[in-house]
Amino acid sequence: MTNLYFMVPAAVISFALVIYSIKNSKTALLFLLILFSSSCLFAQVTPVDTIKPGNGPVKEQLKQIKNAKKTIKDTTGNQPAKNPFIDTTIRNKYGDLLNDDPKYNPKYPFWKPLAGVLGVNLFTWSMDRFLLNESFSHIGPATWKYNLRKGWEWDDDRFGVNFIAHPYTGSMYFNQARSQGYNYLQSVPFAAAGSLMWEYFGENTRPSYNDIINTTANGAFLGEVFYRLSSNIYDDRTRGGERVFREIFGGLIDPVRGFNRLLEGKTFRRTTTDVYQKEPLNITLAAGIHKINVDNNTILGNGPTNTLISLQIDYGNPLEDRKRKPFDYFTFRTEFSFGSGRKVLDNVLGYGVLFGGNTHLGKLSMLYGAFQYYDYWDNMTFELGTIGFGGGVVTKLPITDDIIAFTTVHLAGVPLAGNSTRFGPDTSQVRDYTYNNGFEAKFASTINFGTYVTTSVEYYYYLLHAFYGPASNNHIGILKPKITVHIVKNLSLGFEHFIYYDNRYIKTFPAIHSVRTEQKIFLSLYLEDPQRKGDYEQ
């Protein structure tokens, strides 16, 4: 058990606030960032990213480098063609590094990130013990002996603690290694080590299976997302106020990395070249109203109306022909709902490629491979959290010059899931969900009709078997058709209809069939990376 749950909404909000501001360094955009929404560093793109001392102001040189990195469109797939001045063995076709430069990002001895993992646990325990005085934080030799002797269990912590707070903590363990020169796979054991350390010695309750699984798997997912996004923000070539903002916002997204940069002297380091892997980013921000219907099969009921704020990030171009390593492409979405009830963080959803390849079938461009999935739904009707590993395809098909279809299909195994009980979630502070395993399938298709209208449909299906809690088999479906109409520039007006259905077959109770619908009306701001324009949109 941990009290980091209260940190997560703030962390995700900070994360959302960071992503748009670094698009350029003008004061007006940074002020807009602080006042309201998000900020994003679009990857600088140039065949040569080196600044030359004595060749004019650094800021002006960086501007010239950015302007020089222009790609051209081919005539068949509307994809940027390879620039002959870019060495694609070390850079993507936009001119950015495919890997962090090891000269400036060396791999430190393993004891250093391990010491950092210990530091994370000591800090967390100190907050729980001396600031919050939580009962579980009263530890000592007697509790350690008890934990070692009694062994493991499935715990009764509430949903948000297990499926958000523990993954967030795991991301900090993970990034102790990731920020010290270790790659994705090499950093995962540090997330597991941090969890083991905490489970046995950080609290006086028995270690739990669900915690080490969630902390390690979903912690690695969030950790890599935070690391990649902070890399798009950090630029050791910059100076002055821009450098200060980059360091602050990069640290907000990935606090562990920001702290390690300070200890390692990277915060104030000046380089003449960019030294971090960067990929293009597309960002969608939305705000509007959220109608929640309370009765089964109700289309427009008498339920509450909330305010919604959402953020979607598409990182990397899945259709670029290149070798793939973990999270060179990922999507990450989160939505907040303000109004009725105590639950604010409505969902956090994402997936990232682990390995795969690209191919073309006529006009159809495709990425295929293995993916990792993270699903978190938490509202007044249902709770559902899953860890997923499986296969998927991402495609783009130009139907005409102005009509383009983007489609994703995924099928994954679910080694661990949390699913609300037959009575639905309550407002208590204890577990009101079962532990499950099973399968999940996802389908999403978006059609752009020029720059005027975009239609999309998403479908999620979960087949879950409850192995801890009331024995049951649950069939859960979520359908989300949506349409957005362009208003002006990057601003659109959208409508989404949300349908959740659940068929529960419980051994000791009659079968339960439930349906819930929602409607959302929102304004959407689409921030497309100029260098990725037309490449991919979801």
From TrEMBL:
<dbReference type="InterPro" id="IPR025079">
    <property type="entry name" value="DUF3943"/>
</dbReference>
<dbReference type="Pfam" id="PF13084">
    <property type="entry name" value="DUF3943"/>
</dbReference>
<feature type="domain" description="DUF3943">
    <location>
        <begin position="151"/>
        <end position="256"/>
    </location>
</feature>
<keyword id="KW-0472">Membrane</keyword>
<keyword id="KW-0812">Transmembrane</keyword>
<keyword id="KW-1133">Transmembrane helix</keyword>
<feature type="transmembrane region" description="Helical">
    <location>
        <begin position="29"/>
        <end position="46"/>
    </location>
</feature>
<protein>
    <recommendedName>
        <fullName>DUF3943 domain-containing protein</fullName>
    </recommendedName>
</protein>
<feature type="transmembrane region" description="Helical">
    <location>
        <begin position="6"/>
        <end position="22"/>
    </location>
</feature>
